[in-house]
Amino acid sequence: MEGFYGDGNDKDYCIWCLKGGNVTQPLSKLERISLVCEFKIYCSANARRCKGGCVDIPVERSGESTYLTHDQVILLVTDLIHEVNRVKHMPLLDENDSIISEEDYPAWTGWSLTQLKDMCSLINPQMRTSKHRLPFEAVCMYWIKLKTNLSFRQIGTLFKIQTKEENIRRRVENIFHTVSRYLYDAIVPSNLGFHHLSRADALTHHTAYTETFFGPSLALIWDGTYIYCNKSEDHKFQKETYSGQKCRHLVKFMSIVLPDGYVFDLIGPFNGKENDAKISKAILEMNDDLSMICEAGDTQIVDRGFRDVADAFEELGFDVQMPSFLEKGAKQLETEQANETRMATKTRWVVESFHSQFKKWRFFSERISQDFLVNIDVLVRTVAASLNKYRPRLFHGKSPDDYALATKMLLMHNKTSQLQQLISQGDLSLRKNWKNIVHFDIHFDFPYLTLDFLREYTCGVYQIKQSSTYAKAHLYDHGGEFEYQLSSSDDNILRCRIHSKHSSTSKYFLLIHFDKNGTHEPIKDHYCQCKSGARQLGCCSHIATVLWYMGNARHITWIPSIRTDDYREKILKC
């Protein structure tokens, strides 16, 4: 056999490392076929391999030309036919011998092979093996449905279920609901809900930011999420699930998350027409379990949609942290309000991150059939509990750098903008006495800012991530030039006008006071006209864009991404 190696005399040494004298074990038929197909090495039925494993790839050989006898050819062809037939009826995912690689399991199920095996071990006492169902395959079918939202019929094809057309769908559906019940009973009670954690355990989930901002008391983060469903034939149910905000039919769940992203509980479903405040109030009224772990003085972190339930939280003795609202007639938050808002958003983003992680199981991000609404709470809580059990926390937030930044933010809580005061006193105008500069003059010496400095100045990374898209739009609007102005009375004060990404007609003036020679404090102050522009705990995205572009991007010859330009040009304009 040209191009193949191995003479079949291989019973006295390891076929992989070619060494003798080691403790060996016989190769399985599959291993022998793999050597032929992958490495072009022929070995007999007597071939052996080191018992403890030796090399990952067989040692190359060139002096063992393969000459097969008539009987050896027949045995090899028989083995190949047997292997083809075995693979033909083998399911996509198998506990011991899968068609896909181990790295593909998360893409299909959301979990690693080890995690799936652990889940299988949890339900093995209840789910017995039968000729139509193996526990491992059943667990994989369940998670493939949630991860990909393929139909039950399509999943049946992946697992080579041999029966009538309609029976394939029904069998997979029955397996799905059976596994759903068993996994819920095995995972949820010990990994989700008011009773699964003690107060002492919950306090260990603090981060540097919640502990520094709000003290050592327990902090819970509340936020609602939703799952779209089909329009019902039942008129009453149709009205109850219709959300006027989303203009779609949906059911809602309330997520209660600890500061590091650990899901304390996920409660629902609730009607789509209810808002977060009303749902939270209902939870407080019908559920006394919250008082079992929370005490007076604990912190409840919420968004603006909970404004109507804030009083109910405070009546129970809780401290409510919520982003501030604009006063009637105001266009901008006061500095103190903006700073407090930043402290709230700095700690509550983990609940949004959890929702993003949760919706990666496409079953929950797409519109679900009403047949699943009966058990939707079981499915939702099983995923949340599994994330708690098998995934690392979304945010550890306990490093020395985190504590240093949190302390810095707390100390800056009452800081105000000197530029804003100059404007309010009439000593500085946003519209008069500015020198317009389009091209970067070689004499314009704006300090170079490292990404580490920018991360510290903005108190995070979110604004920096937004900067490139803001800068691209600004360059697009000004013919590829970054337009800015300098004060006629002070060359260290820069003015720029940046658009709002939310409104096509809104543009905001911003000011930056910089020090050309300041190595420790190159940026002295900032102010922006936008809603949160008076903030001193970090800065808004408009300020961050100018700092990033002027102090960093232009020094590294940054070029805007053109990937989305093709999308925009493809859309027809009227």
In short:
The chain has 574 residues and is α+β, with helices and mostly antiparallel strands. Helix content is 41%, strand content 13%. Its cofactor is a divalent metal cation.
Can you walk through the features of this model?
- The protein has 574 residues and is α+β, with helices and mostly antiparallel strands.
- It has 22 helices and 13 strands.
- The strands form three sheets. Strands 3, 4, 5, 6, 7 and 8 form a six-stranded mixed beta sheet that branches.
- A hairpin with a 5-residue loop joins β10 (484-487) and β11 (493-499).
- It is globular.
- 34% of the residues are buried.
- The model has no long low-confidence stretch (mean pLDDT 89).
If classified by CATH, what would the architecture of the largest domain be? 2-Layer Sandwich
Q: Structural class from helices and strands?
A: alpha+beta
- Give the C-level CATH assignment of the largest domain: Alpha Beta
Shape: globular
Query: What is the percent of helical residues?
Result: 40-55%
> Quaternary state, please?
single chain
Number of strand segments: 13
Characterize the main sheet.
6 strands, mixed
% residues in beta strands: 5-15%
Low-confidence stretches: none
CATH topology of the largest domain: Nucleotidyltransferase, domain 5
How far apart lie the N and C ends?
68 Å
Chain-averaged pLDDT:
89
Rg on CA atoms, Å: 31 Å
**Tally of helical segments:** 22
Number of domains: 4
Q: What characteristics describe this protein?
A:
4 domains, Nucleotidyltransferase, domain 5, 6-stranded mixed β-sheet, metal ion binding, 574 residues, globular, HARBI1_dom, alpha+beta
